[in-house]
Write a structure and sequence with these properties.
heterodimer; A: 12 helices; elongated; B: about 0% strand
C-alpha cells in the first residue's frame, strides 16, 4: 500500500515537472554561486524568439589588462560554440565613448538579431539602448552596479560587490576601527567608481578613517610609486583597500623592500595575485570578478533568441577567495594572467595560461 | 622643384594620398559590404565624423601657422561636463568662455612666452582634463534637451550632423579664404620671419588661432554631448591626436603654410571610414587601430619629413 502511494506520488511530481512550462529559472547563465537572478520580473517566453541562424553583436569598451583579454577569449568561445549563431560580431571601443556609440550604430546597421553591450559608462549608451529596444532588438547590458532599466536583460557584477567585499574584509580585520589607505583605479571609470562606492558602503558607520586616497590606474608601476611615497611619508596605516590587485602586488613589494610589516591588504581572484599573496605570506582577500560575466551575456542573448523566459536582471556576487579556500583556487601550474573562475575548458586553459 | 610644386593643388596640400585614400576606401567598402552604401549607414558615418571634423578644422587653423594643439580633446571633455552640470541657460556660454580661456592660455604660452606648442598644449591638456574630472568624476549629469535635439534631429531626411559639418566648413572656409586674417595665417605659416618683416603682425593671429582651435573643441563638445546625451569627463581624450592624424592624412603640413578645408574633410572621412568599414566588414577591432597607424605612417612616409613638419 505505502509502496503504491509512494510510486503514485513520485509519478505525479515527475509528471507535473515534465509538463510545466519553461520558467526563467531554467536558464542558467553561470553556475549557482557565481550568478543568480536579482529580480522576479521576467522577460516573457517567446518575446524575442527568432528562427536561427542568428547574428549577435557585442560592443566592448576597450582592452588593457589580462582580465579583459581572458574575458574576450571566453566571450568568443561561447559565441562560436553555439551551432545556431551564424556570426558573432565583436567590436571594441578603445575606451572612447564616441567610438562606442558609433560601434553600436554600426552593429545595428549590420542588422544584428541581439545586441550585447558592456558600456564604458552606463549613462553613455542609454540612447543607443533605447534605440535598439525600439527596433525590437533584445539588448543585454552589463552594469557594474545596478539594473539598467531599458535593457532587455541586465547582467551586473564586480563594481560595488567587489569593493564591498574588500571593505568588509578590512572592517573585520581592523575590528571596525583604524586608518586605511585607498588605492583607486583610473579616474572617471564607471567600474572604478562602483568599486569605491562599495568600499564606502562597507565601512559606513564603522570607525574607519581613510588616511590617504590615491589613483594608481590599476597599474603595478604607478601603484608601486604611490605606495613608496605613502610609506615614506610615515602616515599611519592599519589596512589598505585596492581597486585592483596589480597595485596590491606593488605594495607587497614595497613593504617587503622597506622591511615594513605587512598590514591587511585587499586583492582579487587572479592567479598572479594569489601567487604573490602566498609568497608574501600576506593577510588578504580576493573578491571574485569572474570573466564568466562575458559568456553569461552571450548565453542570455542566445536564450532570448531561443524564446526562453528569462529574468530581467542577474547579479554576480560570489564568495571571495580567502585564506580558508585559497587552495581551491590557486593554480601553481598556470601563469599570472589567469583569472578565476573560468568558463573555458581545461585544455584551452592549459593551452593559453600554462606556466 | 619646390615642395609646393610636388603637390597637385599648391598650398592646399592635396595630393594623391589625401584624395586617393578615402576614394579607394569608399569604393572597396561599397563593393565589399552591402550595408555600407545604405542611407542609414551613410547617415551614421556622417554623425560619427562630425565632432572630429569640427575639431580637425580647429587643428587646421593652428597647423597653418606651424602650431599644434593636443589640448582640444580635454576641451571637449570640459565642455561635456559643464553642459551636463550647469543649467541649460548658462551651460553653453560658460563652456565657450572656458574654451576661449584655454585657447588664450595656449596662445599666450606659444606666441608671447615662446613655449613649444607641443609642450604648451600638453600641459594645458593635462590641466584641463584634471579640471574636467574635478567637476564630474564619472559619466552622467543631465544634458539640456535642446542640445540633444540639435545633435540628433533629422531635417529633411538629413542627419543633424550634416548641418553641423556644413556650418563649420563654411565658417572656416570663409575665414581662411575670404578674409585678411586667413591670408595672414598662410603667410605666417610659410615663413613667420618674412611675414613679420613685411609688416604682418604675428603674435595676435597666433593667439587667435589657438583660441579658435579651443572654440572648435568646445563646439565639437557641444555636438558630442548632445549626441551621447550624457556628460563624460574623458569624452574628448582621443580627439587631440585623432585631429592631428586627420589633418595629416588630408595633406596639411604640420610645418605650416599648407593645408585646406577640403583636405581636412578627406582626412576625417578616411579615419571615419576605417572605423565604420572595419565594423561592417567584421575585421578585428584591434586590426582597425593598427590599420589607422599604418595608413598614417604610409601617408607621411610618402612626404619628406621637412615638408610634413615632424
Amino acid at each position: 500500500m505505502w509502496k503504491t502511494l509512494l510510486c503514485a506520488s513520485v509519478l505525479t511530481v515527475v509528471a507535473a515537472l515534465s509538463g510545466r512550462p519553461a520558467s526563467a529559472g531554467d536558464v542558467e547563465l553561470l553556475p549557482p554561486g557565481l550568478m543568480a537572478p536579482s529580480t522576479t520580473e521576467v522577460v516573457p517566453a517567446g518575446k524575442f524568439k527568432k528562427d536561427p541562424p542568428w547574428t549577435i553583436g557585442m560592443s566592448w569598451p576597450g582592452v588593457g589588462n589580462t582580465w579583459i583579454v581572458q574575458t574576450i577569449q571566453e566571450i568568443k568561445y561561447a559565441g562560436s560554440h553555439d551551432p545556431h549563431v551564424k556570426e558573432f560580431r565583436f567590436v571594441e571601443a578603445n575606451w572612447q565613448p564616441a567610438k562606442q556609440v558609433a560601434d553600436i550604430e554600426d552593429l545595428m546597421t549590420h542588422k544584428v538579431d541581439a545586441l550585447i553591450i558592456a558600456p564604458i559608462a552606463i549613462d553613455l549608451v542609454k540612447a543607443q539602448v533605447n534605440a535598439a529596444a525600439a527596433a525590437g532588438i533584445p539588448v543585454i547590458v552589463f552594469s557594474p552596479g545596478g539594473t539598467f532599466t531599458n535593457a532587455t536583460v541586465s547582467v551586473y557584477g564586480g563594481g560595488e560587490a567587489f569593493g564591498r567585499t574588500g571593505g568588509e574584509f578590512l572592517k573585520d580585520k581592523l575590528h571596525g576601527k583604524g586608518t586605511i589607505w585607498v588605492f583607486r583605479g583610473i579616474a572617471g571609470s564607471g567600474e572604478e567608481i562602483a568599486r569605491y562606492n562599495g568600499l564606502k558602503d562597507a565601512i559606513k558607520g564603522a570607525d574607519i578613517k581613510i588616511g590617504a586616497e590615491v589613483y594608481g590606474d590599476w597599474n603595478y608601476a604607478k601603484g608601486k610609486q604611490l605606495c613608496e611615497n605613502l610609506v615614506a611619508s610615515g602616515q599611519p596605516v592599519d589596512g589598505i583597500w585596492f581597486s585592483g590587485a596589480d597595485m596590491t602586488r606593488a605594495c607587497f613589494d614595497v613593504f617587503k623592500e622597506i622591511g615594513k610589516p605587512l598590514v591587511p591588504m585587499t586583492g582579487e581572484a587572479n592567479n598572479g595575485f594569489l601567487r604573490a599573496w602566498k609568497n608574501a605570506g600576506a593577510d588578504s582577500v580576493g573578491p571574485i570578478f569572474t570573466p564568466g560575466l562575458g559568456p553569461a551575456m552571450v548565453r542570455a542573448a542566445i536564450a532570448l533568441l531561443e524564446g526562453q523566459q528569462m529574468y530581467k536582471s542577474y547579479y554576480s556576487d560570489p564568495k571571495p577567495v580567502t585564506a580558508a579556500n585559497f587552495a581551491q583556487y590557486y593554480r601553481p601550474d598556470l601563469n599570472d594572467a589567469f583569472w578565476f573562475p573560468s568558463t573555458l575548458p581545461e585544455n584551452m586553459i592549459m593551452e593559453m595560461f600554462k606556466q | 622643384m619646390t615642395r609646393h610644386k610636388k603637390r597637385l593643388f599648391g598650398r592646399s596640400g592635396l595630393g594623391v594620398i589625401a584624395i586617393g585614400l578615402p576614394a579607394a576606401m569608399f569604393l572597396l567598402l561599397s563593393l565589399g559590404t552591402p550595408d555600407f552604401f545604405s542611407a542609414r549607414n551613410i547617415a551614421n558615418v556622417n554623425s560619427q565624423i562630425t565632432a572630429l571634423l569640427i575639431v580637425a578644422l580647429g587643428q587646421l587653423i593652428v597647423a597653418l601657422i606651424g602650431g599644434i594643439d593636443i589640448s582640444v580633446g580635454s576641451v571637449i571633455s570640459l565642455t561635456s561636463v559643464v553642459l551636463a552640470s550647469l543649467s541649460a541657460s548658462v551651460a553653453v556660454p560658460v563652456a565657450l568662455i572656458l574654451a576661449a580661456l584655454v585657447g588664450l592660455g595656449n596662445g599666450l604660452g606659444v606666441a608671447v612666452f615662446g613655449v613649444h606648442p607641443l609642450i604648451m598644449t600638453l600641459a594645458s591638456m593635462i590641466f584641463v582634463q584634471g579640471f574636467a574630472l574635478l567637476i564630474m568624476s564619472a559619466a552622467g549629469g543631465t544634458v539640456p534637451p535642446l542640445l540633444i535635439a540639435l545633435a540628433k534631429t533629422n531635417i529633411a531626411g538629413l542627419p543633424a550632423g550634416f548641418f553641423w559639418c556644413v556650418s563649420a566648413l563654411a565658417i572656416v572656409a570663409v575665414l581662411l579664404h575670404k578674409t585678411a586674417f586667413g591670408l595672414r595665417l598662410f603667410a605666417i605659416g610659410a615663413n613667420a620671419q618674412s611675414a613679420a618683416l613685411s609688416g604682418v603682425g604675428v603674435r595676435a593671429p597666433r593667439l587667435a588661432c589657438y583660441m579658435l582651435c579651443s572654440l572648435a573643441g568646445a563646439i565639437a563638445g557641444v555636438y558630442l554631448t548632445g549626441r551621447i546625451a550624457s556628460g563624460d569627463p574623458t569624452m574628448g581624450e582621443p580627439f587631440g591626436l585623432n585631429s592631428v592624424t586627420a589633418i595629416a592624412l588630408g595633406g596639411v603640413q604640420l610645418s605650416g603654410g599648407v593645408g585646406s578645408v577640403i583636405g581636412v574633410v578627406l582626412g576625417t572621412i578616411t579615419l571615419g571610414l576605417i572605423s565604420n568599414g572595419m565594423n561592417l566588414v567584421g575585421v578585428s577591432p584591434f586590426f582597425s587601430a593598427a590599420l589607422t597607424g599604418l595608413l598614417l605612417l604610409g601617408a607621411v612616409s610618402l612626404q619628406r619629413r621637412k615638408a610634413i613638419g615632424i
